[in-house]
């Protein structure tokens, strides 16, 4: 059988229990649940620091660990199903169930409820935390430390306009595989802002093109598009800000940038990914 290696926990010697009867391997495992315990961890294709990075997992994200060896864990991310290798030291026990997510672009964890204290670490948009108490304007975390409470929102509370979230990430550096406020790639931007609006999305642009929204006809003059439409090329994705402007994470400027769709379309068509392959429109949430 043919499997997508990106989202299938299957390798030559080991596979997820759910694949019994579909693959032949030496052993199967149901895996053990853990959570990301760092601001982010890179998900590598192979268990080596110089192996390609396909994506990232961020603080509080749930993973299933199928194997650990020499400091590397072979995992599947619960939210989007991505499979790869992360550093074992970046994971921790599941602990308390998250109660909130970070709704600010980025925030800090302090050792006490005081902004003048030296911060311990930071959290990116959509990081999940368990809040145990609130002291003034600061939320105490089950894992220790305090976060400025207005930078958090209860799980299940979402943004109304995912395109506005993308605008808040303007000028974020481009980073292949990135999905934090320190670095994003094109599909990482789309997945991140949709998650903030409560819309689950797969990780890569080809998956997003296949699974999200309904198709919108692309006219020669690129007319008829709306705010929030997802514009796809074979290997790239951006979001429409309005009828004519696109916001996307692009290697052209190495940032999240806004430009006229017509300008981006011509450059991309002539120099990289070819013509627009589709436009997808999401139903109102």
Secondary-structure map with pairings?
Blueprint: E1 10-11, E2 14-16, E3 27-29, E4 32-36, E5 40-44, E6 53-58, E7 62-69, E8 72-77, E9 83-87, E10 91-92, E11 100-102, E12 106-110, E13 121-124, E14 128-129, E15 131-135, E16 138-141, E17 146-148, E18 152-154, H1 162-168, E19 179-180, E20 183-184, H2 186-196, H3 205-211, E21 214-216, E22 230-233, E23 236-240, E24 245-250, E25 255-260, H4 261-271, E26 278-281
Parallel strand pairs: 2-3
Antiparallel strand pairs: 1-2, 4-7, 4-10, 5-6, 7-8, 8-9, 11-14, 11-18, 12-13, 12-17, 15-16, 16-17, 19-20, 21-26, 22-23, 22-26, 23-24, 24-25
Protein name: C40 family peptidase
Keywords: Hydrolase, Protease, Thiol protease
Family: Belongs to the peptidase C40 family.
Classified in CATH, the superfamily of the largest domain is endopeptidase domain like (from Nostoc punctiforme)
Strand content: 35-45%
N-end to C-end Cα span: 36 Å
Shape: globular
CATH top-level class of the largest domain: Alpha Beta
Radius of gyration: 20 Å
Number of helices: 4
Largest sheet at a glance? 6 strands, antiparallel
N-to-C series of helices and strands: EEEEEEEEEEEEEEEEEEHEEHHEEEEEHE
The poorly predicted ranges are none
InterPro entries: NLP_P60_dom (IPR000064), Papain-like_cys_pep_sf (IPR038765), Peptidase_C40 (IPR051202), SH3_16 (IPR041382)
Family: Belongs to the peptidase C40 family.
Protein name: C40 family peptidase
Keywords: Hydrolase, Protease, Thiol protease
